Amino acid sequence: LIAYGLKRQQRADAVVLAFCGVALGVIAIPSIRAIFESSLPWHMVGHIVVMFVVPLFAGWAIARHRPKTVRWPWMSAVSLNVVMVAGHMPRIFDFVMTNGWWAVELMNVAFFVSGLWFFLCIWQSTTALRWSIVGVIATMAVMLFLAMAMSIFSSTPWYSSMASMPGMVMADDFSSQQLAAAILWICGDLWAVPVLVLLLRRVIEREGSLLGALQRYSEQPSRR
Prior knowledge:
Elements: H1 2-28, H2 30-36, H3 40-63, H4 73-87, H5 90-97, H6 100-123, H7 129-150, H8 160-164, H9 173-207, H10 210-218
């Protein structure tokens, strides 16, 4: 029974990794890529898929049976947020969008690698749960702040490259930017809330209750 259960787990992990690979392959198809480059909202959807959706599931599948620990969980959170914020800064974004496919692929690789490193650290059992929870909350907060900066705190469009790209369909630059910001905001909740629920369930299983965990973590080291 144990061997059968392990085989089923390995098959499930292989299926998840296969779907992740297919998703990345589909995004790379020229006709599909053209859709994601047809407007800023679609472009944001592509960023979310490459940086969060695919790495989340791939990291979960890999971490379930990875024998080695992925180090530096704090650095993975910092790396993810720095790459995400930098990738949406006007100068960097315009440079990427006006310098051909190699620049876009380089940015996508940076998105995927930073996302996979982050979620491997989040899902692996050796990472302290409190640090995983803080990393998820901090990343969700950064996504919220970035979305607000693109919409509420701005009154003009950030990206000059999007309006000049061939085939770009945009009724209004700033309204498209606001819609892209809303997608970033909503997606920040869609991935973070379920992950937080799963992490909190781990805390309850280990400590018996959230209150017990808070009391334990708030104790002074000398009293433990």
